[in-house]
Amino acid sequence: MGFNTDLLHAGKIKDSKGATLPPIYQSSAFEQETSEDLAGIFGGRKMGFCYTRVANPTVSAFEERINKLEGGLASVACASGMAAISMALLNILQAGDEIISSASLYGGSIDLFRDIEAFGIKTIYVKNNDWDEIENAFTDKTKVVFAETIGNPCLDVTDIDKLAEIAHSHGVPLVLDNTTATPYLVKAIEHGADIVVNSSSKYINGSSNSISGILTDSGNFKWTKDRYPVLGEYLKFGKFAFVSKLRNGLYRNVGVCLSPLNAYLNIIGLETLGLRMDRQSDNAYQLAKWFEENYKDIKVNYPGLESSDWHDVAKRVLKNGYGGILTIRVGSKERAFEIMNKLQIPYILSNIGDTKTLVVHPSSTISLHSTEKELEDSGVYDDLIRISVGIEDIEDLIADFKQAIN
């Protein structure tokens, strides 16, 4: 089936009452017929649900649909995008391990990597798609490569195939944050990504009504006990080793489970992902082109523009558009604030992927805790405005930005 058909029908549950959406199983725990049944579920010998911190039918329905879209082996939904990144990494890492990461990351991810230094896990930052620098960063302690498909807010586009090739040549997996692209613009597993993370609070949800995240394991990476000793006892599960350890350990014990209601709201939002991404990508391109053609004193950044340093990579990697985010540099922080405050349509808030257009000043918000070097590597400047373009009529957006700038 096609992408938009899968959005509506993949992983759907046949409901005895005829409901066309999965019920919201708003229950902390689930009764079993016998003590033996409950013991079997706890012991992993029997299929079923016992406790929502471990698994829930509504959440499972969401996981199955995302897994189908990403083309993975299994997906695990979490309470937030940051929780999903944490689970993807901490499930395989231990003290003394190193991460090689693109330096152009979302500020929250940089903060997370700084936090896990306390657990003895070090991050080596490299310039995205700088193959010599990436090769030179590998040591015998390197256990994972991490990047974003489209950097937020740098908007650099990762050459996933090449990065995956390098990671695999060193015997480590590629973990890719696909939040800004979604599987509609790129199916990252087909390009070699081993674990794909989405902050489903963003484009997948589409309406800013639920915080959530989800990770998808491709099942393609060959884990070994020597390189990944924390997976040791789970290697008997073969390609399910990563997910088996996560489900039976860190995910269950830390308690990062997604609530059933939020899973339900994500399923509803997911149904229009393709339609929204089409519209948002087209609106973003038209708005970026308008800035470029009409304001020589404003520097616009959008991977869909031929002037972008990442345009050639974006053409190879992305399908169906170049994403719904663009940035503009307007000369000073004061002018950035003035323009944002005069806008009538966009909301000033720190999210992306909403049906409504959103603007934020990254250096004073989402990248507030970054160092000067981290800000520079992430493409964050004091005069930068990030615009997450919605599905409004483009003529109205252009008119609004025009009056705010002029």
Structural class determined from secondary elements: alpha/beta
Radius of gyration: 21 Å
- The N- and C-terminal alpha carbons lie at a distance of 48 Å
Largest sheet: 7 strands, mixed
Beta-strand level of the residues, as a percent range?
Answer: 5-15%
The low-confidence runs, each spanning 5 or more residues with pLDDT under 50, are none
Helix content: 25-40%
Mean pLDDT: 94
Give the topology.
Layout: H1 3-9, H2 35-42, H3 57-70, E1 74-78, H4 81-90, E2 98-102, H5 107-115, E3 122-126, H6 131-137, E4 142-148, H7 160-169, E5 174-177, H8 182-185, E6 195-198, E7 213-217, H9 241-248, H10 250-254, H11 260-270, H12 273-294, E8 299-301, H13 311-317, E9 325-329, H14 333-342, E10 347-348, E11 358-360, H15 372-377, E12 384-388, H16 394-405
Parallel strand pairs: 2-3, 2-4, 4-5, 5-6, 10-11
Antiparallel strand pairs: 1-7, 6-7, 8-9, 9-12, 11-12
